[in-house]
Design goal:
alpha+beta, 16% strand
Length: 178
């Protein structure tokens, strides 16, 4: 009887640990729907997210400068270092708890106008569809349904046994290429 109880407890722990990123995703979705910036910020690892966004934008900027100015242009390196410093400060400001509050508040300014602009002519709203799944024991990826790797994704990382936080955004290559 004792072995059955232990096995049932271990199975319950394993099941809840497996389901935990789905629960975190539901909490993020609820926080966005309710425009609750504090609840949303609780599910974001800001230092990791900042580093991820900076790295991707800097790489995109370097490719853009290389394509435009070429590798032989001495001013390209100077321009890139200045732009990189400015980009770093912008990302630090935008990817912060205050930035999340501003983003949520901006979306709350005129929710009806946004709904009307996005709604199809027949009045039916298309529900956002996404696929989500593990990409490792401690990594969980959310991607638009039928999305390809180049379309971007949200990456959640495990923090403890049951807690998950948004730690990276894989920026879509079309956006990163601008």
């Amino acid at each position: 009887m004792k072995k059955i109880t232990i096995a049932a407890a271990l199975a319950a722990i394993a099941a809840t640990a497996y389901a935990s990123p789905y629960y975190a995703l539901r909490q993020i979705k609820t926080a966005l729907a309710e425009r609750n910036a504090d609840a949303l910020a609780a599910h974001v690892d800001f230092p990791a997210l900042r580093a991820s966004v900076k790295t991707q934008l800097e790489a995109s900027m370097a490719r853009s400068i290389e394509a435009t100015a070429g590798s032989g242009n001495p001013l390209a390196a100077l321009g890139q270092s200045i732009a990189s410093a400015m980009l770093g400060k912008m990302v630090d400001t935008m990817v912060s708890p205050a930035g999340v509050v501003a983003l949520v508040n901006k979306s709350a300014v005129s929710p009806q106008a946004d709904a009307d602009a996005d709604a199809p002519a027949d009045g039916a709203r298309k529900k956002a569809e996404y696929s989500a799944g593990y990409a490792g024991v401690n990594t969980f990826i959310v991607r638009a349904k039928d999305g390809k790797a180049q379309d971007g994704a949200l990456v959640l990382q495990r923090h403890g046994l049951w807690d998950w936080k948004l730690s990276s955004i894989e920026i879509a290559t079309a956006l990163a290429g601008r």
